[in-house]
């Protein structure tokens, strides 16, 4: 037992390989896009809808519904794309296609003439971004070992948070130091916001190059004729396998519920903050602080998981998020929003990184893309229901506060299913 522990510690402490570093850099690349989705794009969209005479509550409904549509489309496609990507040489090809789609959609929504065309191009960009993540996450099994997955996954999120701040800060400086003749508020600086989006798209392209160049698909199924047909056959078999594997099934169900709350808080934070009256610049600076806080805490999560166990750390973060929702329900001042931003930064990287690595340990490596497709469909349907819940709440009650509070239920259910997954894991070890 001691020798096994020593071997694991040696494996984890080993320097990062070229493939591992290249894999981490893509998290740096795509995190810049998700940061502007969280921070500046909702403000820009609010300016478009305001110019069209649309109310703030209606804006929340439109933004939440659009996010839900993009995620719903990808949730349907995820397992199919994942199954196709498991064949030899396919993972990188499909990844590259959706990378191009995401960046193209991002460039188009920058030049969109009105809020309707903006939403159409945004959906294209969001689908491209999210599809890439299926294959990126599944590449985790190609670039490292089970013993290093927690640490590497945590490094990915950590450097994604801190690295994404570079193009974001450049964009914010551009916006804040725009000529006063444009107006004093962020909503008056449309051209500068568009230029900040361009910086993000260029960053996304450049930082993706190492992965495209250095990461290889080491685990795959042999190529054969009729891979589309065989992919659908495999999907059916995999679904049956997941149903039988209670440890994996309960983990995925639990993940569906708790990640729903996590993604909703991330994607709707700026919109919600604006609704309760938080200043736009204060919100963006607070969310930037979240990125800096998340960097060390994401790395810490990987180290703590090796000491306390991955599942225990995930459950700890779920409890923290439940408290964040309760706190968010009563949020109505700028200082409270700053406190909330710090709290979210302490746990959002850890819960995502450890969920990804825990799943990577549970699935067969040569079918990782297909399994991560299923993993993604649960995650995306979760991300679909959360924003939709807030959108419905805003529509009927003219406030999202009750929607934020209701997220606590999702974390409780997620916690319950993780406990069930652990029980089956314990039974397997006993046998």
SSE layout:
Blueprint: H1 2-13, H2 18-38, H3 40-51, H4 56-85, H5 90-110, H6 115-138, H7 140-143, H8 149-176, H9 190-214, H10 227-244, H11 246-275, H12 280-308, H13 310-329, H14 334-362, H15 368-397, H16 401-430
Helix pairs in contact: 2-8, 2-9, 4-5, 4-6, 4-10, 4-11, 4-15, 5-6, 5-9, 6-15, 8-9, 8-12, 8-14, 11-14, 11-15, 11-16, 12-13, 12-14, 13-14, 13-16, 15-16
Quick one: overall form? globular
The average pLDDT is 83
Low-confidence stretches: 1-11
Report the β-strand fraction as a percent range.
under 5%
Q: What's the CATH topology label?
A: Growth Hormone, Chain: A
What is the CATH first-level class name?
A: Mainly Alpha
CATH architecture: Up-down Bundle
Number of strands: 0
Overall tally of domains:
1
What profile does the largest beta sheet have?
none
Distance between the termini: 18 Å
Please give the share of residues in helix.
Answer: over 70%
- Report the total helices: 16
CATH superfamily placement:
MFS general substrate transporter like domains
Decide which structural class fits the backbone.
mainly alpha
> What Rg, in angstroms, do the CA atoms define?
21 Å
Describe it for me?
- The protein has helices at 2-13, 18-38, 40-51, 56-85, 90-110, 115-138, 140-143, 149-176, 190-214, 227-244, 246-275, 280-308, 310-329, 334-362, 368-397, 401-430.
- Helix 4 (56-85) packs parallel to helix 6 (115-138), helix 11 (246-275) runs antiparallel to helix 16 (401-430) and helix 13 (310-329) packs antiparallel against helix 14.
- The chain has 431 residues and is an all-alpha fold.
- The two termini are 18 Å apart.
- It has one domain: Growth Hormone, Chain: A, CATH 1.20.1250.
- 84% of the residues lie in helices and 0% in strands.
């Amino acid at each position: 037992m001691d020798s096994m522990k020593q071997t694991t510690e040696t494996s984890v402490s080993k320097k990062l390989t070229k493939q591992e570093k290249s894999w981490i850099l893509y998290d740096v690349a795509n995190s810049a896009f998700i940061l502007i989705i969280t921070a500046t794009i909702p403000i820009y969209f609010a300016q478009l809808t305001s110019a069209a005479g649309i109310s703030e509550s209606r804006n929340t409904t439109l933004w939440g519904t659009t996010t839900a549509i993009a995620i719903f489309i990808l949730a349907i496609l995820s397992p199919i794309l994942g199954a196709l990507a498991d064949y030899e040489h396919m993972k990188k090809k499909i990844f590259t296609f959706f990378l191009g789609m995401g960046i193209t959609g991002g460039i188009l929504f920058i030049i969109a003439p009105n809020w309707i065309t903006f939403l159409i191009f945004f959906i294209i960009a969001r689908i491209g971004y999210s599809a890439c993540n299926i294959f990126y996450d599944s590449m985790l099994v190609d670039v490292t070992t089970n013993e290093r997955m927690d640490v590497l996954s945590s490094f990915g999120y950590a450097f994604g948070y801190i690295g994404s701040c570079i193009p974001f800060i450049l964009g914010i400086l551009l916006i804040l130091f725009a000529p006063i003749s444009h107006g004093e508020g962020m909503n008056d600086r449309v051209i500068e916001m568009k230029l900040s989006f361009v910086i993000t798209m260029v960053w996304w392209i450049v930082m993706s190059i190492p992965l495209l160049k250095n990461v290889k698909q080491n685990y795959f199924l042999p190529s054969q004729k009729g891979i589309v047909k065989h992919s659908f056959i495999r999907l059916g078999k995999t679904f049956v396998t997941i149903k039988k594997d209670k440890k994996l099934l309960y983990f995925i169900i639990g993940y569906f519920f708790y990640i729903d709350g996590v993604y909703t808080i991330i994607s709707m934070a700026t919109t919600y903050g604006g609704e309760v009256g938080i200043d736009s610049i204060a919100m963006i600076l607070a969310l930037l602080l979240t990125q800096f806080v998340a960097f060390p805490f994401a790395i810490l999560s990987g180290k703590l998981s090796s000491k306390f166990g991955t599942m225990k750390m995930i459950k700890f973060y779920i409890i923290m998020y439940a408290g964040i929702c309760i706190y968010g329900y009563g949020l109505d001042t700028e200082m409270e929003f700053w406190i909330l931003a710090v709290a979210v930064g302490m746990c959002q990287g850890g819960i995502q990184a450890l969920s990804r690595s825990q799943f990577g340990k549970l699935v067969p490596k040569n079918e990782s893309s297909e399994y991560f497709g299923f993993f993604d469909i649960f995650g995306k349907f979760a991300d679909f229901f959360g924003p939709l819940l807030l959108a419905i709440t805003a529509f009927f009650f003219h406030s999202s506060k009750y929607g934020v509070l209701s997220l606590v239920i999702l974390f409780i259910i997620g916690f319950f299913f993780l406990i069930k997954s652990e029980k089956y894991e314990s039974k397997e070890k006993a046998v």
